[in-house]
Amino acid sequence: MVNAIKIPQFEVIKQYVRGHINSGRWAVGARISSENELAVSFSVSRMTARRALQELAQEGLLTRAPGLGSFVAEPVLAKPSLEIHNIVAIAQSKGTYSCQVLSLEQIPADAELADLLRFEIDQSVYLARFLHFDGSKAVQWQEIYVNPKVAPAFLKQNFTKVVPDEYLEWIAPSGHVHHQVGAVLARPSQRRALGLTEDSQTACLQITRVCSRGSIVASLSKLVHPASLYQLGTT
Amino acid sequence: MVNAIKIPQFEVIKQYVRGHINSGRWAVGARISSENELAVSFSVSRMTARRALQELAQEGLLTRAPGLGSFVAEPVLAKPSLEIHNIVAIAQSKGTYSCQVLSLEQIPADAELADLLRFEIDQSVYLARFLHFDGSKAVQWQEIYVNPKVAPAFLKQNFTKVVPDEYLEWIAPSGHVHHQVGAVLARPSQRRALGLTEDSQTACLQITRVCSRGSIVASLSKLVHPASLYQLGTT
DNA sequence: CAGTGGTCTAGACCACTGG
DNA sequence: CAGTGGTCTAGACCACTGG
After folding, report:
1. pLDDT tens-digit map of B217-233
2. Which residues of B touch A181 (CB under 8 A)?
3. Domain CATH code at residue B65
4. Which domain covers residue A34, as residue numbers?
5. From A178, A206, A234, residue closest to B235, measured CB to CB
6. Interface of B with A in 30-69 (CB under 8 A)
7. Which of A208, B9, B106, B207 is most buried (most C-beta within 10 Å)?
8. In 10 A of CB A24, how many CB atoms?
9. Count of domains in chain A?
């Protein structure tokens, strides 16, 4: 006996059921054997058969209903999703991160901004622009609007030592973060900052990030990345 | 007694443990009560206490190890992810979808394409270009390379009646789908097809999608969307 | 060694569904 | 009504970890 790894009984039953579903022997919507039937077939207790079906239900292969039975679930093609990897965090972990402060100011919110931040019009907002580097390469242009009530000392920070987003997360952990991804053309100032020369390079991925807690918006960032440097991927 | 909904015992224990973790009374990494201890404390059987801890472990709040115990897990901030919503499927469900075939051809794979498709160089590949409409508006430009071995009859389909991707999924269900999102500038032909006039509108979101099964690549699509029409979002 | 979590049993009671 | 899944019990044996 080489490598006699013990396979749990509930796993055997799961494989059996999975096999019948994947091969199509049990059609979508069809009722499958009950816990009791499986328990008898496999000579196990009901709790063991139950565990198999339960886990398959949690994996989305089965639907179960008291009084009715277990049914082959509609095959839900795993909805593809993209991880947003933070290019700044990556540079930091490599130790090659640096940040250039382009501007720090306090402005009154115009109508559009007030709407986005759930502010009153003309309420004062911090506006900062940063250029984030990985080594000598500018990888992200950031424009961030900050709620002064959440981070009153924001403009006084030394952003060559503290990453803006980390500072905000530190003093006011955000409950919800909303992301939106789109494509934009680099504006001339952005093009210069990011070192984009040819017209063909000016396509940028823009991530709009809103950090909020409850009904209070803490910050809104626009992150612009040269398309040549930044891609979102999945499998 | 109004609305005396029965709360299962394992749920009570889960709430108890969750409370101690969220409030910080049990620090990250700390060992928590064992199954046996909880069973005694709550006057339940070990299987019930076990279920509570097991489910919390699956939710990522606990780490468990035989012989050692259960520990408060590192709080993993839910990594933000983007759903890729299929603009074509949306138009279909609205009943306003239509498709225009721009080209259908068979070409030999050049070096780059052969690499992407895991093909031999000069092996024959189907290449098709489509323009997908939602009503009278062109919402997606698609360029798709198809493996003739997977879908030999691909070029003979009537794509005003069948969506290319659905046809492929139908005759050869793909095991893995890989997506990549980037920003591109619309090429002149794409700009014309998508009805983009001003230069400022030519920023496009491009999704590269590779469908494969095992080591065989079935198709590779480049989907180009005007940035004004297509955004990816999350919460 | 005593304690941990992982698997498993043979029972039990329950609310619920269909015929 | 008999059957279903949901909850629960009081036992059991196991491989594993630390002291």
Report:
1. 999 999 999 987 777 77
2. 82, 181, 205, 231-233
3. 1.10.10.10
4. 9-72
5. A178
6. none
7. B207
8. 9
9. 2
